Amino acid sequence: ALQLAGLETMIASGRADPARLPALTFAAAQLAYQGKDFEKTRTYATKAIELGHTQGDPQLFVAESYFGQN
Questions:
Q1: CA atoms of 63 and 58, how far apart (whole Å)
Q2: What is the pTM of this model?
């Protein structure tokens, strides 16, 4: 939970290195998923996809977040 909060702060601050922002956003999706916060998982995974992140299969996290929620 603390790791996710730290990443959320970095992302929201606007001070994160733009080159690292896609990976940071995906890491937030992973941590949210581990914490079973499926809404945040979807939000961060979708944003990572929009930012061009492809490693780690962010689309799978979006799909899994729907399965986990039901």
A1: 9
A2: 0.91
